[in-house]
Amino acid sequence: ANLYSRDPVAARSLLDETPPTGARAPHSLLVSRNSLLASLLRSGDLSAARTLFDQMPVRDVVSWNSMVAGLAKAGRLGSAIELFDQMPERNAASWNAVICGLIAHGHLTRAREMFEQMPVMSNISWITMISGYAKAGDVQAAAGLFERMENKNDLYVWNAMITCYAQNGCAREAIGVFNRMLKPHVCVLPNEKTFSSVISACSQLGNLRFGLWVQSFMGSLGIELDDHLRTALVDLYTKSGRIDSAFDLFKGLRTRDVVSYSAMIVGCGMNGKLNEAIGLFKEMSDANIRPNAVSFVGLLSAYNHAGLVEEARACFAFMSSKYKIRPSMEHYTIMVDLLGRSGKLDEAFQLIRQMPMQPHASVWGALLLSCRLHNNVKLGEVVASKCFEQASGESGYYILLGNIYAQANKWDKLKRLRKTMKERGLSKMPGSSWVLAE
Q1: Is 133 helix (H, G, I), strand (E, B) or coil?
Q2: Is 325 helix (H, G, I), strand (E, B) or coil?
Q3: For the whole model, what pTM was predicted?
Q4: Residues 6+ apart with CB under 8 A from 279
Q5: Closest CA to 194 of 207, 209, 179, 205
Q6: Mind spelling out the 3-state secondary structure of 104-144?
Q7: For 224, which DSSP code?
Q8: 8-state DSSP, 176
């Protein structure tokens, strides 16, 4: 019992008093001490672990790796690297322990330096670096490492790259890598993790057709739908307008969490299913599942579709007051859109001005749409100037302002706007139109 307790003195005393028996006795004691060391590190007792490590009469690479990994994981990077430098021998796990710690605490550059110094880079090393870049949003660096790899016969390497693309909004690239891994000269069979990321990419693109093929392919491989895959498909179906199919999948979940509830609430919100969105939110709360920012995107979207300003205001307020969730750019965009379309243009404008972060062009664009809807030339010009500042190369905002001018018979202003667009090399988008009296 003392061996796995948090009392290293008692445990070590027990080990010291154990008489050696047989030729393998020293090895057995080393294994026991390594087990105790690992146990102390898992419990977070770094001090006791270091004491035990320092007092060990014999250490092997497992002992050193455990101590280095424990220090790195706890953020004691200086101590971890110092101990790493003292190691009499190292293996790939030694390097990976330090690299993982550096990445976990945001030191990607230093992690890359150590990665490049490795005598032999294991697949785990490559995957660790690719995943680190993925979490930091540096897709280009991750892709560079992936393409540099000579041996890509490891499924987890492909999964890391597909996940990197999918998580960072590069859906087409994610599907491209997926297609590459299925080519005859590669032929790495995907697993549940692969399909989850690919389905997510399909959702981002709104590509239901390919998503259905992926689902069929999973079936041909004998892969059953676990909760992660079901949730990914729920997201795909809701974004494609197949709410009934999404509900069927949602009902089949073994365990419903905030991710699955939020995916369903967002889907209902996007498709104007207000009562269903509210019902799911209440069901989630009754199950003591705390909503997240995505949950409120769905609920606010539902109120927006229904034009319920007061309810949306209340939702926006208690998101912060009750759940301590800071509104994101997406939450503000939904509120600005609702207020603007409801004719509350000044309130929408003031809400943007009160934002704690720099508003994106998309937020101003939502208000510009409302200015066109309500033919407010004065405010439209102010809002359009904000859009031009942040997205000068986007012709859509010029088209919107042009339509505001056309609706108000401001033909001279419209001509000047068209001249400005021409001078800036901007053209009217296909499918857009405006009226111009010559």
Answers
A1: helix
A2: coil
A3: 0.79
A4: none
A5: 179
A6: HCCCHHHHHHHHHHCCCCCHHHHHHHHHHHHHHCCHHHHHH
A7: -
A8: H
Q: What one-letter code names the amino acid at 83?
A: L
How far apart are alpha carbons 385 and 391 in whole angstroms? 10
Task: Give the integer Cα–Cα distance in Å for 388 and 148.
Answer: 40
Give the list of residues 6+ apart from residue 366 with CB closer than 8 angstroms, or none: 333, 336, 337, 340
Instruction: Check pLDDT > 80 for residue 2.
Output: no
Question: What is the b/e burial string over 154-189, where b = at least 16 CB atoms within 10 angstroms of the residue's CB?
Answer: bbbbbbbbbbbbbbbebbebbbebbeebeeeeeebe
pLDDT digits (tens, 9 = 90+) for 328-364: 999 999 999 999 999 999 999 999 999 999 999 999 9
Q: Which two tokens stand for residue 411?
A: 């033909």
The single-letter code of the amino acid at 228 is H
Q: What count of other Cβ atoms lies within 10 Å of the Cβ of residue 355? A: 14
Residue 395 · residue 425 · CB < 8 Å: no
- Note the residue count of the chain: 438
The amino acid sitting at 231 is: T
Token pair of 190 as six digits? 């995907």
